[in-house]
Prior knowledge:
By secondary structure, the chain is of the alpha/beta class. It has eleven helices and nine strands. The chain is globular, with a radius of gyration of 18 Å.
Amino acid sequence: MNNSPIGVYDSGFGGLSVWRELQRELPEESLIYLGDGKNCPYGSLPMELIREIAEEAVETLVERGCKMVVVACNTATSAAIAYLRERFDQIPIVGLEPAIKPACLRTKSGVVGVVATERSLESEKFLSTLARYGEGVKVIKSVGEGFVEAVEANEESSPATLHKVRAVIEPIVEQGADIIVLGCTHYPFLRNVIEQVIDGQQVEIIDSGEAVAKRVESLLDSCDIRAEKGNTPHYEFMTFADAEYGERLRRKAFEK
């Protein structure tokens, strides 16, 4: 048993979609969330720079006493997860990847859309998973242009965001996709807008949040570091940006 916190790291607000899953599924676990904010978005940054930022973030969480770190950012996972696991081998580190495997296994139309950042769609992990499970499936890869910025600006419901989402999602649906994978943790905050664009058509939307929570729970048990039964959790929010951004992280975490 171990009542130390789990660290959750993302480029900004996006990883809060994972944070919420962890809070719901593991209510006795304390969580420290680090939303970079200063360097967001990561989508088109050089891989080496992303790795340096991710190392600083994980080091900060380790210094805060975290027993595990979840890299709740698809782009940072793509750029740095292998390095981070080697560099911080004293604790489990969980990464993310677009849920291409379940999408390819579940599609009935044989067409799957994957919306992610430029770097995630270029990553070796994504391409190898696609090669393994995507045989016979048409996979439409699209960059969510402006999606991260809309979430960071709390403009999920604005007409401009609807226009951006429509420009990405409509062509995927028109090509017959029955599953759309949200390959960035910011994108679940746009689920309502995406559903509005889909407009009742039979298209399933999936992301990695639930799978990550299950993986974290499994590791807590296998490493014997689950919090004690009845533990009262504490939640902390950190950022590389300013105090105002940190307070916005806290508010968004608990938004309904």
